[in-house]
Amino acid sequence: MKKLYCFILINILISSFIAVRFFLVPDVSFSWLGSTFSVFAVLGHFFSLYILLFLLSIPTLWLRKYLCHAILAILFSFIQITLYVDTIVFQQYRFHINESVLSMVLSGQVVDFSATTYLLMLLLMVASFCTEYLIIYLIDSQVLKPHRKSKIILLSTLLLAASLFISQFGHMVAFYYAYSPIMVVKEYIPLYRPFTSKKIMSFFDKQGERKVVYDKDYINATIDYPKNRLVINPENKKLKNIMFIVLDSWRYDTFSNEISPNTFHFVKNNNGVIFNNHYSTGNATRTGIFGLFYGIPGTYWDSFLRASIPSSFITTLQKENYNIGIFTSAKVTAPEFDRTAFVTIENLRISSKDGSASKRDKQITEDWLAWYKFRDISRPTFSFLFYDAPHAYDFPDEFSVKFKPLGDLNYMTLNNDTDPLPIFNRYKQSVYYDDYLLQNIYDELIKSGSLNDTLLIITGDHSQEMNDNKLGFWGHNGNYTDAQTKVPFIIVGATELSNLINNSNKLTNHEDVVPSLMKNYLYVENDIRDYSTGYDLFKPITDRNWLLMSNYSSYAVRTPDNIYFVNRIGISRYMDLHNREANESPNYQYIQDAMKNMSYFFNQRKSD
Q1: Which helix (H) or strand (E) holds 126?
Q2: Domain around 135
Q3: End of a domain among 487, 512, 540?
Q4: Tens digit of pLDDT for each residue in 333-382?
Q5: What is the sign, positive or negative, of the torsion defined by CA atoms of 254, 258, 263, 267?
Q6: How far is Cα 527 from Cα 536, in angstroms, rounded to an integer?
């Protein structure tokens, strides 16, 4: 047992040395604190993983010695080779290897290996196996004296256990205070899931999580965003007001004359363009809103959060001296938009007062009206209103019920046989209530005379399933079908309508909002690819074959006919549009293109 444990400790050291390659990617530097933390993080992380492998390897001790040694040598040489290959993948793509990447590589559609490559891999496997076998042999031969071996094992264990504690505790503190020099280390280490707990930290410092350490130069980040310095409105063109109205969990089929009549009539009466095939960038709030404000995939969320990198759209508004009003019903700290998209906004409104979602929705309406009436009219204005009632299936008790029968929502009792009608009616009633509140917004835009000088975008952050696919899914964050990702998307106030109308039946998503606004309303001269992976909706869309969507831990590549889903541990599934297994192979060229977008803003930063 002791010999096996000694073998494990040596492999921890080998893996730690290999892991150094993760931190040698081009143009990335760490502060002394970040570098110190990364040492503890690597040692502690591999210690925790290898302790599990130690326990799993114990049964091999019951086998004959040479068979035991051979099995262990094969297993651990495979682990070290996989780790080494992962460093190669990470240096090229800035994400770690998983089953989806392997499927794409082995499909033969996008990568061809030469005979030399196969020979080198074979030599690497043989060399690794021989090295591991030699280590086992030397340990078994007791090269070191027993008492000296025991002392080394004890000291090594204490060092590794201390590293594990320091790295986990350090990351918990860093995450609470948004300290990016430590937080960014997470993205370099494969399978690394450090501890976070706002509840524990708030016990010692309740207001601490709002003390964001903002690094305006992002010197600790691997992010190359934007690719080049933005050239903003060099001709000093007149700027329009811009407004986002977003309903949390808004289904595409509840934008209608019956369920949202005020918005429906407002759009029809003001030449609004309704997009019929529009999707969020995710099936969860953080990735849906992230895509809306950044114009890039939600898979970047963690990296941007760790480095507190703001949206180029927001910083462009600030440079153009916009009045900026952020009015969210739920807390802007959960998800942490105060540390991402809105990190550069001073005196950010954190949330509405505590209360039900419908009460908070009423409050943001009243707060926006008061703010808008007294804004500086000599400057253009950006407004963001984010309603929450549909997410909570909530509306005031005194609000007249239009949709019956009405049921109560209890996620504990929902199953595949639950009748969706009463629950769907409650949901529709909540959308109906928010639509009632929105009439106040529309009236103010008209009354103030600012409607003609405002570009208004109305949409949802994601959709909300009512077991549409008959697979027991309710709500969101569960799959990437239409029921959880397709949302209403309307543009009101645009003057150039021809391309918008032509694109309204094309495949579009939230990544397209920022490039459309930056190019046509903020007059940014840069190529769109400097700051977005989306499309300009005011130009013809001719070549889009897929969309990239994500949530907290998974992502999917959506085509008009299928969904390629990759879960949190990298296992992929190919499904039809109703989340059932498809009896065909995916187009791996689409998958590779999507992965390029997922790594595009990790590329080496150009010199100014």
Answers
A1: helix 115-140
A2: 1-204
A3: 540
A4: 888 899 899 999 998 998 888 789 999 999 999 999 999 999 999 999 99
A5: positive
A6: 11
Closest to 564 in 3D by CA, of 582, 543, 539: 582
Angle formed by the axes of helices 420-447 and 357-373, nearest 10°: 10
What pLDDT score was predicted for residue 174?
A: 84
CA dihedral 565, 566, 571, 577 (to 10 degrees): -10
Same domain, 200 and 248: no
* List of residues 6+ apart from 10 with CB closer than 8 A: 135, 139
Helix (H) or strand (E) run with residue 292 in it: helix 285-294
* Domain count along the chain: 2
Contact 568, 574 (CB under 8 A): no
Q: Kindly report the pTM of this predicted structure.
A: 0.78
Domain CATH number, residue 250: 3.40.720.10
pLDDT, tens only, 440-478:
999 999 999 999 999 999 999 999 999 999 998 999 988
Looking at the predicted structure, is the pLDDT value of residue 498 above 90?
A: yes
Same domain, 312 and 382: yes
Are residues 197 and 249 located together in one domain of the fold?
Answer: no
Which pLDDT score, from 0 to 100, does residue 396 have? 96
Looking at the structure, do residues 55 and 170 belong to the same domain, yes or no?
Answer: yes
Helices 65-93 and 32-57 sit at what angle, rounded to 10 degrees? Answer: 150
Q: What's the confidence (pLDDT) of residue 112? A: 53
In angstroms, the Cα distances linking 512 to 8, 414, 498, 499, 601 are 50, 35, 17, 14, 16
Q: Do both 277 and 195 map to the same domain?
A: no
